[in-house]
Amino acid sequence: MSFAGKNFKYLRKLRGWTQEDFANKVGIKRSLVGAYEEERAEPRLEVVETVCSIFKLSLEDVLLKELADEGESYMAKRRKLKMGAERSNIQFVPVKAAAGYLAGYNDPEFVDELNTFTLPMLGPGEYRAFEIIGDSMLPTPSGSVIVGEKVENLEYVKSNQAYIVVSRTDGIVYKRIQKEPKLQTTLTLVSDNPQYPPYTVKSEDIAEVWQAQMILSRPMEKPVWDVNQLASVVNTLQEQVNSLKSNRS
């Protein structure tokens, strides 16, 4: 039996990740992480290779060595791991490039032409930043930049979390996703602003999904409150509460 399960747990804790975080980074289910760490199952080779790539280790290191017993203190290893982590270049998609992105998101040459930046607080991963316009996700202001980490499979989307969704029908939108267990072919997109009703998109029409990790926005000016708009929001919320009450009765 290999040391893979023990090493997965050790490496996960070095990064300060939960089992859910680790599962998302590696692209497996959370339950599998638990099974590996408790040594109830052996990870597949492709899973071990992904972990090796993330942590810059060899297969021999992960499979044949018990990394926790290598003599260096826990905190020293954690500091070294953080210092050695490569910063990911984040491609930036401004609103003016949104139409071109829909046609070229899968074209390496187009993506390479996008401006890039780095953020030291993000761990290794594939990230992209999108400028959003509109007030459907208030209190996130129009003009904010959403930094998202790529979700490789819709199976790993978490219900009620915020994502950038790139679809062939609606373009690039920033919404919360609600998953209906019985409806595998559609996703419901929900705005934080209750004035905007939820709507559904077909899974087959979705090109990319990026889970929001950070929101970058300019300092806001002193807000000028629109009394009529506030009243409309309150009325909308009251209607939704009344609707929920009637559905329960």
Write structural notes for this entry:
This protein has 249 residues and is α+β, with helices and mostly antiparallel strands. Helices cover 36% and strands 21% of the residues. It has helices at 4-15, 19-26, 30-37, 45-55, 59-64, 74-84, 98-104, 108-112, 227-248; strands at residues 90-93, 116-117, 127-131, 145-150, 161-167, 171-178, 186-190, 199-202, 206-216. The chain has a nine-stranded mixed sheet with strand order 2-1-3-4-9-5-6-7-8. β6 (171-178) and β7 form a beta hairpin. The longest helix is centred in the last third of the chain and has 22 residues, at 227-248. The chain is globular and about 65 Å long. The termini are far apart.
> Based on the structure, what is the oligomeric state of the protein chains?
single chain
What profile does the largest beta sheet have? Answer: 9 strands, mixed
Give the class from helix and strand content and strand pairing: alpha+beta
Give the beta-strand count. Answer: 9
**Helical amount:** 25-40%
The ordered string of helix (H) and strand (E) elements is HHHHHHEHHEEEEEEEEH
Mean pLDDT value: 85
Lateral strand order in the biggest sheet: 2-1-3-4-9-5-6-7-8
Number of helices: 9
Strand content: 15-25%
Q: Which stretches are poorly predicted, pLDDT < 50 over at least 5 residues? A: none
Principal-axes geometry comes out as globular
Q: Radius of gyration in whole Å, from Cα?
A: 22 Å
* Terminal Cα span: 57 Å
